[in-house]
Write a structure and sequence with these properties.
The complex is a heterodimer of chains A (76) and B (159).
Chain A (H helix, E strand, L loop, with lengths): L4 E4 L7 H12 L5 E6 L3 H13 L2 E8 L2 E7 L3
Parallel strand pairs in A: 1-2
Antiparallel strand pairs in A: 2-4, 3-4
Chain B lengths: L3 E6 L4 H16 L3 E6 L4 H4 L12 H9 L17 H12 L5 H10 L3 E5 H7 L10 E5 L1 H9 L1 E6 L1
Parallel strand pairs in B: 1-2, 1-5, 2-3, 3-4
The chains are: A alpha+beta (76), B alpha/beta (159).
Chain lengths: 76, 159
Amino acid sequence: MTIDFELDAVGMACPVPIVKTAKKMREMLPGQVLRIISDDEGFKADIVAWCESTGNEFLGLEEKDGKIYGTVRKVS
Amino acid sequence: MADKATIVVFSGEFDKALAAFVIANGAAASGMDVTMFFTFWGLNLIKKDKGAIKGATNWMQKMMGMMNRGGHSRLPLSKFNMGGAGKMMMKKIMKGQKVQSLDEMMADAADLGVKMIACKMSMDVMGVCKEDLIPEVSEIVGVATYINEGKNSKINLFI
């Protein structure tokens, strides 16, 4: 899977990771993939919920060295 | 058409303002059309950071305007404000926890297209005119506008 864009949201508390994700997605084309890096525990549930409410595709979540990597595909 | 979220902001306290803007920005970031309806003490969030209000027409409103000074930077904490010391500490703690400032949240709200509207009736009571409000406020409205927004909203909050 190709990651088209990466968004560093480390050190940012709710709701910034989601706000930044939404803003970044506005610049992207449908089909493109964004990976967001966060260290906010709440982001794990939030990125899934955000995909559900916006209709974008949730591709997965990974945790490494205390960081959370969430991957999403822009649908429309 | 996008789902709608409507938030009535009645309170004029710092912590409640944070709650309102976190939810507004979260909803807007989730693709919702968000309207914030500012009324009564909530008008303080959208008043300009300055002293006297221009809309005051009698001495009571002028006195109210002086005591109830506007601007989101002047909002007290709803608990443990302690003459502003509690709020100062809260802001410090928030900064340490990497929480956005109210300033940043309000800038994000404007950027995300959150619609901010003000209640005409409470503006009249408080002696607040359009000039006393920040430019992000797009409309001065009555209760019917809120009802119309609210009845079509999936999320409806009173803060």
